[in-house]
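Chain X:
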Amino acid sequence: MPLGNKQLSLFEPGDAAPVAPPPAPPRKAAPSEAPIPTVRPPSLPSGARWREVQTSQQIIGFVLRRSRRKSIGLVINDDGLQVTAPNWVTLAQIDAAVQEKTRWILDKLRWRHERQQHLAMVDTHWKDGARVPYFGRRIELGLGHPGHAHVFSGQRFAPQDGDRLLLALPGDADHLRVRDSVHAWLQAGATEWFEQRMNHFLAASGLTIKRWRLSSASTRWGSCSSDGSIMLNWRLIHFGPDVIDYVIVHEIAHLRQMNHSKDFWREVGRILPGFEPARDALRRHDPASLPLI
């Protein structure tokens, strides 16, 4: 039986919850659940507004954006609930949609809140002096660097704790601008490093791929399709080189074994002997457990 364009990944997709107006009545919540704070972000994207709605459980605040889409979309990210709605939908319909999805919203916000309380990496506040995980180390952000390009004080692919990423941004740049600039720098580094390691392991294994690209998936570190296409989550750049190598080899091994059988794991071990500690370290995380998203 042909595989077609089957895709294997380390995690399953997704957290988006599109809904279409008009919504159904809201569901009741368990009385024991404590309210989850929904706080207005320090700054909002262009064209967005902050809105709050009273639900059956608590007030829920959210960032509202208008678009040409045909239905209302709800997504939870670092700034909390984000709602995207068609231009023709009324505010009352948007509020009702949030009320309908109260259970889903609060479950996701509660999980996000507990995750952030648990993680040591939640001190990334996207401002001068903030620390960011990079190659398994912690680098520090510095704003106000003169010139048009960012400057890294350490070795690009061998950083040490305390190395500084000096951003060519004003000292009072808002958190979205800082975050986007750092993300772009990290993604550029991920592209270059992943490419080097991909070529290394393809040469070692004697395999070839059709193409590879970065992904921003919220629930998978990597994936391989049966047509020879590989995707790697750019947020792997937060981890040490051994973890990055493991994920790359994991996906390359799928070129021979589109499964997770014993033969697959033997193939991983053949290409990358001693991969188990890196695999076990990665299993303690999922892409959504990182606060940089």
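Chain Y:
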Amino acid sequence: MKAARLFLCLAAFLGITLAGTPADADELVRFESVPVKLSPFRIRKAAEQGEILSQPLGMPLLGYLSRPQGDGPFPAVVILHGCDGLRLSIKELWPQRLVRWGYAVLVVDSFTTRNIQDACQSPLPDRVFDAYGALNFLSKQGFVDIGRVALMGFSAGGTATLEGTKIEGNEQLMDRKFKAAVAYYPVCAASQGDATVPLLILTGDRDNWSPAERCRKRLARLSDDSPPIELTIYKGTYHDFDAPEFTVGRKVLGHIEKYNPDAAEKSIRSVYIFLRKHLSN
């Protein structure tokens, strides 16, 4: 029995699709970001001045939903892309991998409805609200176990993942919560300290776009009560190290982006173990 279970786990990790368990195709879906709630101060001032406040609205968003075959309910992962948008590894490779592992996946497109092509040289919207809008959307899907959903982000999406799971951040305003989070090469804020959920941070020691040292400093500030934060720093590794579309490597705004197959494989294994640990029943 143990041997059979081990084989199934290994098959899932290696990407072997077993007979009778194909993944459903991606589905384009529409939902909204969580509206930014009015502060008590703003509400009070409006009442004092006789002002009628309109109900805040969320930003219309697109997403790509993938799921294993079957009724579920499945654990799920919400994915946030980086400042360069929906590249191949984020829109296709990671969802395919996660579905094979047994997760429903919602990749959030934060750019199309905002008419953004590339935000690497301009301010990004607060995508924490996009992430929780995706979580609200998943809560309405009968095949998703809404109590077992992780947030996963890459680069700027990884930074938004840290922002969306920090103590005293906007997470406290949300009705639903993520259970765990994974951040690939995010920009860490050394002053953030504790997280609200178990967190896995994966980055490279040669990444000058998302310096690993800032992540080390954050971990040094953790209290004894913080959920665990795991930090893995891969030697000789640059930004976007998990993305095979950057096998040749490139320089963007003075930063090197380059695929590292060894670091990519190790990080995928770490994500697999992390999600199994924190999204299990």
